[in-house]
């Protein structure tokens, strides 16, 4: 899974070989993924904050190959969940947007500042190195 984004039809889930839309909310979908790991989204975030001393922008760790960080606040309708493990690089685009290049060389354009997204990516890398 490369990223999850909200659309008018539901959630668009993009992976290397599939692009599907599911009619669920973001929290509902993430809770379904975490339930397979015997956890909930709120429980996982609370535990990670306490264990690692994180205040905000907590990565959503599902398992060893799936760890998301949010492009913006989770409540923001334009927010995208990005899987850290699928990102090849991040580069500054034009007009205050950012391009994420995934390992399959596909590109996702986000209307988020480069510095903000890069900071979240680096924070997720630090978090994963502490596991």
Explain how this protein is built.
The protein has 131 residues and is of the alpha+beta class. The longest helix is centred in the last third of the chain and has 16 residues, at 114-129. Helix content is 29%, strand content 32%. Strands 3-2-1-6-5-4 form a six-stranded antiparallel sheet, with helices on both faces. It has a three-stranded antiparallel sheet with strand order 7-8-9. A hairpin with a 4-residue loop joins strand 2 and strand 3 (19-22). It is globular.
Topology of helices and strands:
Blueprint (H helix, E strand, L loop, with lengths): L2 E5 L2 E5 L4 E4 L3 H10 L5 H12 L7 E4 L2 E5 L9 E4 L3 E6 L5 E5 L4 E4 L3 H16 L2
Antiparallel strand pairs: 1-2, 1-6, 2-3, 4-5, 5-6, 7-8, 8-9
Shape: globular
Radius of gyration: 14 Å
What's the count of strands? Answer: 9
How many H/I helices?
3
Q: Provide the residue-averaged pLDDT.
A: 92
Separation of the first and last Cα atoms: 21 Å
Question: In percent, how helical is the residue content?
Answer: 25-40%
Low-confidence stretches: none
Percent of sequence in beta strands:
25-35%
Main beta-sheet annotation: 6 strands, antiparallel
N-to-C SSE string, H for helix and E for strand? EEEHHEEEEEEH
Strand arrangement within the widest β-sheet reads 3-2-1-6-5-4
Helix-strand makeup class: alpha+beta
């Amino acid at each position: 899974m490369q990223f999850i984004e909200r659309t008018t039809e539901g959630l668009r889930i993009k992976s290397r070989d599939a692009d599907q839309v599911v009619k669920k909310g973001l929290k509902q979908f993430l809770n379904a993924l975490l339930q397979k790991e015997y956890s909930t989204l709120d429980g996982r975030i609370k535990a990670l904050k306490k264990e690692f001393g994180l205040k905000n922008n907590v990565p959503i760790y599902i398992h060893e190959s799936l760890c998301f960080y949010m492009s913006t606040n989770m409540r923001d309708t334009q927010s995208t969940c990005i899987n850290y493990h699928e990102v090849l690089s991040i580069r500054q685009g034009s007009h205050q947007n950012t391009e994420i290049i995934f390992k399959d060389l596909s590109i996702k354009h986000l209307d988020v500042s480069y510095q903000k997204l890069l900071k979240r990516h680096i924070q997720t890398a630090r978090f994963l190195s502490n596991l």
